Amino acid sequence: MTEDLTEIDGVGPAIAEALEEAGFETVDDVLTASVDELAAIHMLGESSAASILEDEDGGKGRPSKLEKYEDDIFEAARQGLTYEGIARVAGVGVSTLHDWREAHEDFSESLERARSEAERELIQDVDAEFVLERSYGYVKTEKREVDMDADIDQTTTQELGEDEKEIARQLIQMKQQQDSGDLNE
């Protein structure tokens, strides 16, 4: 079994595969090779080979541009956008956004807090009956008697009472706690 060569700074999955195909099975195999040996591998030139061996910047691949986009990302998250929408507003790919979430725990936690803020605001603005229907399968049934001889030209609208709204808020809160793992079962 070979080591994960992507642990080497400057080596991504494609280069790791090319290195393995060329017979480099371990990180040590790569780091003890010469620049010329690495440069001869498909997809690696002399400067890339030297960079891998010298570990010039101490980083893996290009430096992250997260700091440049962080404010835009959090602002979009506070607006309640999906990850795809957040990435689009920030001008980055959704896969880049997910990579940043995986690589930077603080960023990921802050992003989730921003999305939670938006979710809370959205839920407060949404009619409780809608939330009950969509999230919990609530169905309100009514029995009405209609005189078929009468002319009916009116629309009847019925709103949830305060008790039903409070039940909806409590159900939503329990669901959020359960989703975040705060609810003790």
Describe the protein in words.
By secondary structure, this protein is mostly helical. Among the domains are: 5-54, DNA polymerase, domain 1 (Orthogonal Bundle); 66-123, no CATH class. Helices cover 58% and strands 0% of the residues. The protein is built from ten helices and no strands. The chain is elongated, with a radius of gyration of 28 Å. It starts with 12 loop residues before the first helix and ends in a 5-residue tail after the last helix.
Q: State the order of secondary-structure elements, H for helix, E for strand.
A: HHHHHHHHHH
Q: Level of helix content?
A: 55-70%
Q: Write down the overall mean pLDDT.
A: 79
Structural class: mainly alpha
User: What characterizes the major β-sheet?
Assistant: none
Q: Uncertain regions: pLDDT < 50 for 5+ in a row?
A: 56-61
- Helix count from the secondary structure assignment: 10
Any idea what the radius of gyration is? 28 Å
Residue share in β-strands = under 5%
Global shape: elongated
List how many beta strands DSSP finds.
Answer: 0
Q: Give the termini distance in whole angstroms.
A: 42 Å
GO molecular function: DNA binding; nucleotide binding
Protein name: Helix-hairpin-helix domain-containing protein
InterPro entries: DNA_repair_Rad51/TF_NusA_a-hlx, Hlx-hairpin-Hlx_DNA-bd_motif
Pfam families: HHH_5
